[in-house]
User: Fold these one by one.
Assistant:
Number 1:
Amino acid sequence: MTVAERNVILLGPPGAGKGTHAERLVEDYGLVHLSTGNILREAEAAGTELGKQAKAYMDAGELVPDELVIGIVRDRLAEADTKQRGVLLDGFPRTIAQAQALAEVIAQLELTGLLVINLSVSDEVLIRRLSGRRMCDNCDAIFNLDRDGVDVGDDCSECEGGKLYQRSDDKPETVAERLRTYYEQTAPLIGHYTERGLLTDIDGNADADAVYERVIASLT
Ligand code: AP5
């Protein structure tokens, strides 16, 4: 089975590097990138009903209700390119109920080769990474103040016209709440997927290139 025939879940706490490695996997292997966080932020920026509903939860560091998020994922997975290219799920599932809904959709659509990669990173490293994260308001490219020497208002080096901003949920008090939410509601997925023989655990504390090598090794 080639990487393109796989459907991959990137699991891990806030700041583990899911979005960072997703960008590279999509570029290197052509997988469809399905980031529920990016979809919700775009809906919020566009002022849609979904965005308005999601904003309060995101700003509080809580999860958006399952029924809203499951609907988004179900619709996107049903599009034709997912079967041809394989899907990279970034930030979904995040609850056992989402994992159960995903299993049903995968069975209905006959998507094969599900693999779950869990990025394990210490809280200390996560907090440092999130405080330094800057993102592009146009193409969602991810940067870091410490590593890339960029800051809010700089031009994006990955696209035309994008400017860097700091996510509102990267404030220290919201980060603490997101971590608490992660341990309570999302970490149980590690056991869920381990029991099903689908999970590979990767030490994500190293630099991004070293972690990406481990991710690739787990896919092939
Ligand atoms: P979402 O956008 O999914 O955020 P998250 O899961 O909290 O994860 P992050 O995006 O913060 O981190 P990441 O792991 O992608 O790290 P990144 O690569 O950016 O969700 C946001 C909100 O939306 C949620 O709180 C919730 O409200 C809602 N939501 C989304 N999905 C939902 C769902 N399924 N159900 C319900 N609600 C949902 O890296 C972070 C920083 O570290 C960057 O600056 C990066 O450059 C740097 N970095 C990454 N890797 C390394 C490395 N190895 N070494 C050094 N620096 C690194």
Note: Residues 12, 14-20, 36-37, 40, 57-58, 61-64, 69, 91-92, 94, 98, 129-130, 132-133, 142-144, 147, 169, 178, 204, 207-208, 211 surround BIS(adenosine)-5'-pentaphosphate (CB under 6 Å).
Number 2:
Amino acid sequence: MDRRAFIKSSLVGAGALALPKLTISSRAAAPKKAAVLKLGSQESKLPGASLKEKVANLEKWGGCGLELHGNPATRIAEIKDAIKGTTVRVSALCWGSCKGDLVSPDLEKRKQGIQQIKDALDTAGELESTGVIFVPCFHKQSDLKPAELDQILFDILPGIGDHAVKRGTRVLLEPLTKLETFYINRIEQAAAICAKVNHPGICLMGDFYHMSREETDQTQAFVTGGPWLHHVHLATGKTRILPGLEPHSYVEGFKGLKKVGYQDYCSIECAIKKGTDPAVAIPQAFDFLRQQWKEATI
Ligand code: MG
């Protein structure tokens, strides 16, 4: 998607937010576009001696989204060079929590955390990435209560969102299982924050691993988050391994993506078992996911 179309799509999402209440589950309007399955992977999971080789493998297997770790500011030229002339694009930057600094009661730490996510957004913009994945805090990174954390997010996210939009990208709130954080475990919780902040630069993502532990209805979870949903992580069920290696179905979740007309990337974020050849296992996982996508009829 080019920059103008990107901003336009974000603003369409924001327009949908102008509802008087957080009736987020009622927004499952028919999608304007048919959903697409754009598969991808985190860089670290891809086999290859160089980034260029990894990208070539991903493209060969029909993948098109390259997810990078942290803020790869010093690698911008290398990344642009690796994807040049291919159908692969940068999906998201998997950035994280910055040790909880953005929601720290220590205002100096908070300021530094905000600067760091803005720096990551600069890189994301330069790479035309869909967004920067943000987790406010993992366990033991904050002693505050969820309501206090909500208030800090409401204070800081509008300014960060302005920066994101200026750079043509977004923040993506990632809900995590209760094994990893006490704060924002389900998509509807992230959606409620996005709705309240009501900013095109503040969006969310879904991760099948966390969802398999926390969501009772995967279709509905994606429908609820639909207006703000711009990235998906793929991992099989409760052990977080490559899709297709154990009997975990993606069909219900994919139905949700189809219902909201999902247009962004689905990226592998999982362990690759010792002894497994990723050059065999990843294309098999992609085949499995394409089959599951076909089975997800709505
Ligand atoms: Mg994830």
Note: The radius of gyration is 18 Å.
